[in-house]
Amino acid sequence: MKSNQILQDLKQKYPHEPEFIQAVEELLEDIAPMYDDNQTYQDLDILGRVTEPDRMFSFRINWEDDKGNIQVNRGWRVQFNNALGPYKGGIRFHPTVSPSVLKFLGFEQIFKNALTGLPMGGAKGGSDFDPKGKSDNEIRRFCYAFMRELAPYVGADMDIPAGDIGVGGREVNYMFAMYKNMSREFTGVLTGKGVGHGGSLIRTEATGFGLVYFLKNMLDTANDTITDKKVLISGAGNVASYAAKKVIELGGKVITLSDSVGTLHDAEGFSQEKIDWVIAQKASRKPLKDYVQKFGGEWLEGKRPWAIKADIALPCATQNEINATDAQNLVDNGVKYVAEGANMPSDADAISIFQNNNIIYSPGKASNAGGVAVSGLEMSQNSVRQYSSFETLDKQLQDIMKNIHDACVEYGTSDDGKIDYKKGANIAGFSRVADSLVNYGIL
Ligand code: GLU
Q1: I need a surface site. Which of 17, 24, 312, 434 has the fewest CB within 10 A?
Q2: pTM for this structure?
Q3: Which domain holds residue 99?
C-alpha cells in the first residue's frame, strides 16, 4: 500500500486523535517519495505497522489528597515500537494528556530514539493528573499510585520510562522507589533517577544542553556563530532553563522565558544568576512574573515570546505553541534559526512558513534528542553498575548531537546545497527502524 492510502486509513480509523495524525503527516511529508519507491517496505507494510502501537495500556489511579478525599485519574503507557531496543520514553503528567497526545509523543519517540544511534525503541506514558497546586505529599502519593498500576508493564529490558512535562527527578525517584519495593530488584527500570541511586550526572541538563549543542552545529554549518545572538526561549522548566544556561555560556543573549500564563522579557539578557533564580522560583512553584520586581524587564501577561525581535527561537514549552501567526511574527522580527526543544511545538502551517522564508529549522525529534540520549547512557551505566563522570557524559552528549546533526545533513541536503533538517531527521530515523523491521520479517 502506498503511503497516502495508509494516511487516509489512519484518518478514518482515528478521527478523534488530531495530534497523532499531525505527527504522522509531518513524517510522511518527507518519507513518502522514498517509501512509495521501496517495494520491500510496501510488501511488508512497514508504514502500516509502524503507525500502529505494539500495545497500549490504560489504567485507573486512585489516590488520596491532603483532605482525605479519594481522587481518580487515568493513566496510560503506549509501547509503540521496539525494533531497535527496549521501549523507551518519558511519562507526562498534565491535564491535556490523552491517548492522542501519548500516541503522537510515542510515535515521535521511535524516530528520535533511532536518531540517537543507541539501542532504544519508542514509548510514552502519562496521566491527566495536574501537578499544579498539589502538595509534596500529594505528588508522592500520586507517583506511588501511578507506579503501582504501571509496574506490571515495565522492566529494565522491556520498557524504561523517564520524565517529561510534570515529571522531574522528584517524581522519577518516587516511582522508582515504588517499583523497587514491589519487585525487590534494583534495576535501571527508570531513567532520570537521583544521582546517588543510579542516575546520570547530566540527565537534568541533557535536553537543554543537547539542544544548544545541536544549534551550535547548525550555526557552524551555516558559517554563523551564537555570539551576541538574541535568543527567544519559551518555557521555564527543565529544557528551557538548561538551554538558556548553555546559550549564555556560549556567548548568546537569552531575552525571553515563559510559562502557561505569560512571557518574561528581559532585553538586557538573562545572566546565569537570573536563570538560577528562575529555576529556584519554578522549583518552589512561585510565579515567574515576580522576576520583574527583582531584576526588571517586562512581564507580558497571556503572551507567547514569538513577537519580539531576535535572531534565534528555541521553543521549549509544549506541542503546537507556534502557529502560523507566531511563525510569521518570527519571520517579520528577523529570526533566522528555529531549533525545537519541545516535542512538535510548531504546527504544520508554522513549519511551512519557516521553510518558505528560509528559516533554518530543526524538528524536536532531532534537536531535543539529548535527553533521551543521556537516558540511554544511564541505562548502560545501570546495566554494568557503574557511574560516568559529568565530563565524560557531556562529551558523549556533544558527540551524539553532532552525529544526529550530521545524519540530518546527509539525508536532508538537496542538490542546491540547501539543508532541510526535518527531511533529514525523518528519513534517517525512519530508515533505521524500517530496515530492522524488514530484517525481522513479519513479526
Ligand atoms: N521525555 C523526554 C523526551 O521527550 C525524554 C524521554 C526519556 O528520557 O526516556 O524525549
Answers
A1: 17
A2: 0.97
A3: 53-183
